[in-house]
Automatic annotation (TrEMBL):
<dbReference type="InterPro" id="IPR013520">
    <property type="entry name" value="Ribonucl_H"/>
</dbReference>
<keyword id="KW-1133">Transmembrane helix</keyword>
<protein>
    <recommendedName>
        <fullName>Exonuclease domain-containing protein</fullName>
    </recommendedName>
</protein>
<dbReference type="GO" id="GO:0003676">
    <property type="term" value="F:nucleic acid binding"/>
</dbReference>
<dbReference type="InterPro" id="IPR012337">
    <property type="entry name" value="RNaseH-like_sf"/>
</dbReference>
<feature type="domain" description="Exonuclease">
    <location>
        <begin position="84"/>
        <end position="304"/>
    </location>
</feature>
<dbReference type="InterPro" id="IPR051274">
    <property type="entry name" value="3-5_Exoribonuclease"/>
</dbReference>
<keyword id="KW-0540">Nuclease</keyword>
<feature type="compositionally biased region" description="Basic and acidic residues">
    <location>
        <begin position="59"/>
        <end position="70"/>
    </location>
</feature>
<keyword id="KW-0269">Exonuclease</keyword>
<keyword id="KW-0378">Hydrolase</keyword>
<keyword id="KW-0472">Membrane</keyword>
<feature type="region of interest" description="Disordered">
    <location>
        <begin position="38"/>
        <end position="73"/>
    </location>
</feature>
<dbReference type="Pfam" id="PF00929">
    <property type="entry name" value="RNase_T"/>
</dbReference>
<feature type="compositionally biased region" description="Polar residues">
    <location>
        <begin position="38"/>
        <end position="58"/>
    </location>
</feature>
<dbReference type="GO" id="GO:0000175">
    <property type="term" value="F:3'-5'-RNA exonuclease activity"/>
</dbReference>
<keyword id="KW-0812">Transmembrane</keyword>
Length: 338
């Protein structure tokens, strides 16, 4: 016997007995997780390792018949963990002079669904296409009257929102149906069926606007909306770093966030060589379609598309009181001008 103190011996014996219990609990938990649909979500957070690379010759046999159409300037196809992308660019209520701390309410919910045209058996892909689109206006509850500033900015009229569904209704009816119809979530349980990622211009749409709206609407974030968000602007910045020879030569690393803020959609389109913005800026569906063009181009250029923006559903702003109440005294400007 090793010369152990009585205390250490006791500890050892204790561990000897408790470890199997922990192990048993773990197995039980994992089994249950499998039974529920947590499995699907698990695949997203830890994308499964790709099988070993195939020799090129056998890969060549795999490619689809439309291979001749492949753009020869397209870069190599990286491994892409997600199967689908939901591009979202919400419009929200605003007042002149309000910033990202305001109690914004979502008034337009526009989504473009992108899928790979072809993904090889290793999960490598580079060609995305828009396969479906969703758009609805949303009726605000805290400040049902839109400011003229907001209407001028977004083009959304009072009539648009007056006849629109409330946010929680939208999420649980027509938008839920959209996701289910496209095979992204289970129609009954709402569990994810395939790994998909939200794509937004900047980190704000899901991380801030959706979290604020869920508070005001007194609902929980649906599980299919509480993670896997890709800030597209940040990926464009990464792409710039990779493709700007001067930047590469000087070896400078990531841009700081102020620079990122000054990279509006129009500028991103220009930098990627995609030409002009199509449609009306700050119209949610037009913004969304243009962000979708950017995502498609980033994929074509061989950028890996991954989640890069954590969402905290419990994040709180100063104006948040109890049970979804907006504390007027904390909302700036104090006296809204309609
Ligand atoms: C597939 O992706 C892996 C990892 O990103 C990469 O190393 C490989 O070269 C890719 N294959 C092709 C054919 O582009």
């Amino acid at each position: 016997m090793l010369p152990l103190s009585p205390f250490t011996q006791c500890l050892g014996i204790l561990l000897l007995f408790t470890l199997p219990i922990f192990k048993w609990l773990r197995i039980r938990y994992t089994k249950q997780a499998g039974k529920n649909t947590v499995q699907a979500t698990k695949d997203i957070t830890t994308p499964q390792k790709r099988p070993e690379s195939q020799p090129l010759s056998s890969q060549r046999d795999e490619v689809d018949p439309s291979r001749d159409n492949i753009d020869p300037t397209a870069a190599m196809q990286p491994y892409q963990p997600y199967d689908a992308f939901l591009v979202l660019d919400v419009e929200a209520t605003c007042q002149p002079g309000t910033d990202f701390d305001y109690a914004n309410e979502i008034i337009e919910w526009p989504v473009c669904l992108l899928r790979w045209k072809h993904k090889d058996k290793n999960g490598n892909a580079s060609r995305l296409e828009i396969v479906d689109e969703f758009r609805s206006f949303v009726k605000p509850v805290w400040r049902p009257q839109l400011s003229s500033f907001c209407t001028a900015l977004t083009g959304i009229t009072q009539d648009n929102v007056d006849s629109a569904p409330l946010f929680h209704t939208l999420l649980h009816t027509s938008f839920h149906d959209f996701l289910a119809r496209n095979g992204l979530i289970d129609a009954v349980t709402g569990a994810r069926l395939v790994p998909f990622c939200w794509c937004t211009d900047g980190p704000w749409d899901v991380r801030d606007f959706v979290v604020k709206q869920c508070f005001i609407s007194k609902i929980r974030l649906p599980p299919w909306l509480s993670g896997d968000v890709m800030d597209v602007r940040r990926v464009v910045t990464r792409w710039l770093e990779k493709n700007d020879p001067q930047r590469r030569a000087t070896g400078s690393v990531a841009f700081t966030s102020p620079r990122r803020k000054s990279l509006p959609i129009t500028r991103q389109l220009h930098l990627l060589g995609l030409g002009a913005f199509e449609g009306r800026q700050h119209c949610g569906i037009d913004d969304t379609r243009n962000v979708a063009r950017i995502v498609i181009e980033l994929a074509r250029q061989g950028m890996p598309l991954r989640a890069n923006t954590p969402v905290n559903p419990r994040r709180r702003w100063q104006w948040m009181g109890k049970n979804g109440k907006v504390l007027e005294e904390f909302v700036r400007p104090a006296t809204p001008t309609l």
